[in-house]
Amino acid sequence: DTRKGEQGSIAPQVNDETLLGWPDYQRGKVALIFSTLFAAPVRTKLGEWDQQCYASDEEAHMRYSMQLDAYDRLVDEHPEMYQKIETRSDLQSILTQWQRIDTEEHPVGLVTLMEGAEGVREPAELENWYQRGVRIIGPAWAGTRFCGGTREPGPLTKEGFALLERMAEFHLTLDLSHMDEQAALQALDTYPGAIIASHANALALLKESGSNRHLTDRVIQGLLERGGVIGIVPANGFLRPNWKEAGGRSSVTLDYFVAQMDYVCQMSGDALHIGIGSDFDGGFGLQSVPMEIDSIADVRKIIPILVQKGYTEADVAAIMGRNWLVHLQNTLPEVL
Fold first, then answer.
1. Rounded distance, CA 231 to CA 27, Å?
2. Using CA atoms, how far apart are residues 141 and 101, in angstroms rounded to an integer?
3. Cα 66 to Cα 75: distance, rounded to the nearest angstrom
4. How many angstroms separate the CA atoms of 291 and 116, rounded?
5. pTM for the predicted model, two decimal places
6. Other Cβ atoms closer than 10 A to 288
7. Rounded-to-integer distance, Cα 3 and Cα 295, Å
8. Cα separation of 277 and 280, whole Å?
9. Which stretches within the chain are classed as H helix?
10. Cβ neighbours around 67 below 10 Å, total
11. Taking phi first (over 0 means left), then psi (-120 to 50 degrees means alpha), and beta for anything else, what does residue 300 get?
């Protein structure tokens, strides 16, 4: 449905064909997603079509606010399809609705995640973002005034430490995705709250990439010690960096995706720190994912691969969603 709606538009030309759609959420049993707020600094703008960019803190604030407004409209106009998750009670409501067997369709829960936190003009604003439903914040995408990020390395700044201090007051989850290693290690040492990497892969299996976008073993070990969850990304560039030269999409299978999961599980000695971090809203689509995937529904095809590798039914359930649910149950407030 979404692909049909995007035919003739710029979207599939710049982001590939979409992997998301309401029927696919249902077929894939996608009960919960991290609904991202994201805008890029204007220095990274990819073309005139790339409108979600900002040139100042004020413009970043405006764009993030407008995106949050859009999620609010989506929920208000289609409550039978999408519901915001701000509390443990909201989460339990979604899970209860997915247990119903008298209907084939169930609502998708939206947990709001702010990626690249420059929409926060000053730490004092976090109370407003929290009241509006933001529950996870990643300080970086590219480098920000808070810390080094993808392709722009660097430590936490004075403003970064101030942001983390204020985040802790509201028990917000810190997302290390996109943070440079130096900044991530500082955050692991100093942030007292919950820490995750919502969408990031292990650098050890991607050494030829040379990118600071991926997680070093030091950062992974820090996340494991802090009880964090890492969402593995099934994007070909995050699974096999030379995939285009190696034969294109046909050269990447779901085995590469599972290998990333298995690497972290071997480090931790269990399957309690891994989840799906699809990033399917992240500027790529059908043409840039493993050949077995046609939509988000096909991520479930990793289940028999995990079983073949010796993962138990409980392990598979943890990887396919339970780990994220446990994290949310432990970090969301009971009520507002």
1. 21
2. 41
3. 14
4. 30
5. 0.97
6. 22
7. 11
8. 8
9. 2-6, 11-15, 22-27, 57-77, 88-98, 126-131, 158-169, 181-190, 217-225, 236-239, 254-268, 302-308, 313-317, 323-331
10. 19
11. alpha
Indicate the Cα dihedral angle 157, 160, 166, 171, nearest 10°.
Answer: -130
Name the residue type at position 291: M
Contact between residue 142 and residue 174 where contact means Cβ atoms under 8 Å apart: no
Domains of the chain: 23-193 (3.20.20.140)
Residue 201 · residue 214 · CB < 8 Å: yes
pLDDT at 244 over 80: yes
Cβ–Cβ under 8 Å, residues 5 and 37:
no
- pLDDT attached to residue 4: 81
Chain-centroid distance, C-alpha 251: 25
Q: Which amino acid is at 308?
A: Q
Q: What average pLDDT is seen over the chain?
A: 96
Q: How far apart are CA 90 and CA 4, in angstroms?
A: 32
DSSP state of 53: E
Residue 336 tokens read as 């507002």
Mean pLDDT of the 203-231 span:
97
273-322 pLDDT per residue, tens:
999 999 998 789 999 999 999 999 999 999 999 999 999 999 999 999 99
For 99-145, the pLDDT digits (tens) are: 999 999 999 999 999 999 999 999 999 999 999 999 999 999 999 99
Residues 6+ apart with CB under 8 A from 195: 173, 174, 175, 176, 187, 188, 223, 226, 228
**CA–CA dist 188, 179 (Å, integer):** 11
Tokens representing residue 71 in the block: 């999620």
* Tokens 């034969």, residue located: 247
